[in-house]
């Protein structure tokens, strides 16, 4: 289905006239030409029509793609599917390289950097990653060049925090919240930023940088005051205790919060906190 066909369908589904769609912006004749002949319209016109029909851009994009995910989202899904299989991951990275050569789209080099780094990180073999410095530079150069981050930039940074030192993370973190507030009215904003802040706190915890944790926790508190984000609120309580006890933190100290997480079916999060605590305590012993 072409754009003009979809706009016409959405308008008719809502029993709206062409005059109503045009009112305040263009003429009925211009809408008629667009719907019947598929004449070109500006992005501003498309936004206007969607606003008049109470259709969000995300909804429109979903319908336009027949409910199918985009090619780029499919590529990201494939990356997670191959992350634990070195042979398949190597083939996947080769595919990304070919796609980048064919399109000159930096998306593919960024995704390659992400999954290559994630592979070595989760294997605790980051020092064996021959592309580490190159991938860090690729990601950092891209992120530093974006004035207003979207979900892609936040996800990329959040997933690859371990590539950067604490000073860079803190400096970028302060501007990230400002950049992302452009999307504060979107339904996904709070969940995305809460996930990013939690990832940041977990990394700083592993690095035992409690001062940095305190800076980030301030923002997490602001975003987790409502019942919809109770898991984030529990995370606040956990990290408050970690900052208080520092290297002396023990599993018993976190037991109330972990019990609540498990009771609320957040067993995965509870398990992750236990694993990080064990890893941090092991490092303290050494």
TrEMBL record:
SUPFAM superfamilies: lambda repressor-like DNA-binding domains (SSF47413). Residues 7-60 form the HTH cro/C1-type domain. It comes from the Bacteria. InterPro entries: Cro/C1-type_HTH, HTH-type_regulator_Rgg, Lambda_DNA-bd_dom_sf, TPR-like_helical_dom_sf, Transcription_activator_Rgg_C. CDD domains: HTH_XRE (cd00093). NCBIfam families: RGG_Cterm (TIGR01716). This is Helix-turn-helix domain-containing protein. It comes from Lapidilactobacillus gannanensis.
């Amino acid at each position: 289905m072409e754009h003009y066909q979809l706009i016409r369908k959405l308008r008719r589904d809502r029993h709206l006239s062409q005059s109503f769609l045009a009112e305040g912006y263009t003429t009925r004749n211009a809408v008629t030409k667009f719907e019947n002949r598929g004449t070109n319209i500006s992005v501003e016109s498309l936004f206007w029509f969607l606003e008049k029909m109470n259709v969000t851009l995300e909804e429109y994009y979903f319908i336009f793609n027949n409910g199918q995910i985009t090619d780029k989202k499919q590529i990201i899904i494939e990356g997670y599917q191959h992350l634990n299989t070195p042979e398949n991951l190597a083939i996947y990275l080769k595919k990304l390289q070919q796609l980048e050569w064919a399109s000159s789209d930096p998306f593919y080099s960024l995704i390659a950097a992400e999954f290559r780094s994630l592979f070595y990180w989760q294997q605790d073999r980051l020092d064996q990653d021959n592309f580490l410095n190159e991938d860090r530079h690729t990601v950092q150069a891209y992120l530093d060049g974006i004035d207003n981050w979207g979900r892609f930039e936040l996800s990329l940074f959040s997933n690859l925090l371990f590539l950067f030192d604490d000073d860079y993370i803190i400096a970028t973190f302060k501007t990230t919240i400002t950049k992302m507030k452009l999307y504060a009215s979107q339904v996904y904003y709070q969940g995305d930023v809460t996930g990013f802040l939690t990832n940041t706190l977990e990394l700083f915890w592993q690095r035992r940088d409690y001062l940095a944790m305190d800076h980030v926790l301030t923002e997490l508190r602001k975003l987790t005051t409502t019942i919809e984000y109770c898991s984030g609120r529990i995370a606040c309580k956990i990290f408050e205790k970690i900052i208080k006890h520092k290297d002396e933190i023990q599993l018993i100290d976190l037991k109330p919060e972990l019990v609540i997480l498990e009771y609320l079916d957040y067993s995965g999060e509870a398990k992750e906190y236990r694993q990080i605590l064990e890893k941090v305590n092991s490092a303290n012993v050494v």
